[in-house]
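Fold this sequence, please.
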Amino acid sequence: MSSNNQTTETVQLLFIGATDEVAAQCEPVISGIGIRYHHQITTTLTSLEMAFSKQRWDIILIFPPLETVDLSQIMASMATHNIDGTLLMCCEELAGDTAIRGMKGGVHNAVSLQHCEHFQLTLRREIELLKDRRLLHKLQRDLNTAATQGGTASQHKKDLLTGLYTQHFFTAGSQQAFKKSPPDDNTQHSIIFITLDKINMIREQVGIAAADIIIAEIASCIRRYIPASYPIARIDHHSFALLIQKTTLKKVQSAAQAIRKTVSDFIIDIAGSDISRVTCSIGFALTNDKTDTAQLIMRQAQMACEGASAAGGNQFRQFDPSSDEQYGLARELKEEQQWEGRIREALKENRFKLLYQPIVSLRSNTAENYELLLRMLDDNHEEILPGEFMPIAAQAGLMPAIDRWVTRNALTELSERRRSGKDTSFFIKLDHTTLSDGDFHTWLSERLRANKMPGDALVFEISERSDLKSPGEVAQFMQQLKVLRCRCALDHFGDNEASLERLRRLPIDFIKIDRGLIQRIKSDPTIQTKVKQLVTTAHDSSQKAIAEFVQDARTLSRLWSCEMDYIQGYFLQRPDGTMDYDFTEEN
């Protein structure tokens, strides 16, 4: 990358299983990224425990083969001593079996002395991510971020990858700014929305890790350019927004053009790639007498940005306040605000309900597995389906609170079933915004202990589409779940070309085949062949495959021939408020 940022603090490195000769080989590679570091070598469990008890380690680097300590002991010791450092494995081959087993076991990433540039890029990125993660935790502790109205979970201020504000914090802060300092007759407030062009193509060419580095570097580039008084946030994987208060159209146009040029002039230097520059599309909107909320201005700016992108990118556009979309957006936002109030009240009054749907083995495994599904209850305790309230909850930043409600009540139910002799496991879907909840794992660890529940009683489902948006965040989140012994499933699996690569990269226990494939399998032989390939590849990686939305016997027969491990759907049982499915082999 073109950045020359250097870490001024001394980085503490712990080498596990390394010889003095190997440590010496690492020295020029690590020093080459411009950091000062101190290292220590341990080779036994006793020396490892002692090192963890005396020092806060930033990077723990494992050098297999390990003779006197294994990976599970290392991770258990890290949990015992509350070590929050990043766990890496140095292997001969990045895609070899050793690296894959390590990452499935909870290692954050793999590096190799045979691939020095990759080693350096990975190490620099992991150090920066660790700094961001620790900064976020400090902010959470220092600020004691207030729960959202109605007792919901706290929202977090900084994005882990870029260090910019999160979308929810930015939107709430912008609305507060609008109220505290309204524009006068000569000025307006403005939100500028920025999206990087062709980021999916860039990710395919340079890889996930390098694409994340590009996004982080461009975010830093924009932050350095704009005045410190302009709050800026990361909105999704490759989009940003910034607020300019009490400004004029001419100044906003000038800022948008300057940001466009700053991004397009940014030099990218990645070995083996033809990509040297990235462009962006920009949209902006300004307040007027009919648009005085930050949410509405953000939507307008995003709409203008989409127009700039559709026109070819590398340009900016202003939202036209006289357009028909202006009035449609206002009505839509008012309805969403009413729904948001209802959802907050439901959280406050505990008006949600869990339903259970069995996940049944086709391979003589009689374990009790249920997927949890959620319903909201209205004032009359009538059920409201997720499609009606979850999109609004996501837009309002309430999904982390809902995910915690589900997990907390799931553990209470599991605890009761375990006491009655039922060895039940729950599959819980997590929204992608929960992946940015910096203290979710700490909270989950406390809930597991309070309920005396082993982590493997929970299987957390994360959508493959979340990995498309934030691949580094998904891998890190899953690895932290592994430390708690929880299991992981990748949902909506197989609906894009990079699916098979994720089986090797992510520490997953189950794949859940995308419902679109399952629905077409009985009528399209090519889909059956594709599903068979996905299942076979999963088995080669010691993972189990689950088919959702199984509706009839014909679909079931196709799945059996694909060697599917588990099925779920109305053919077995509809979601129900009780858990009475018979999992025995006779059934």
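Residues 1-7, 139-155 have pLDDT under 50 and may be disordered. The domain at 10-136 is CATH 3.40.50.2300 (Rossmann fold).
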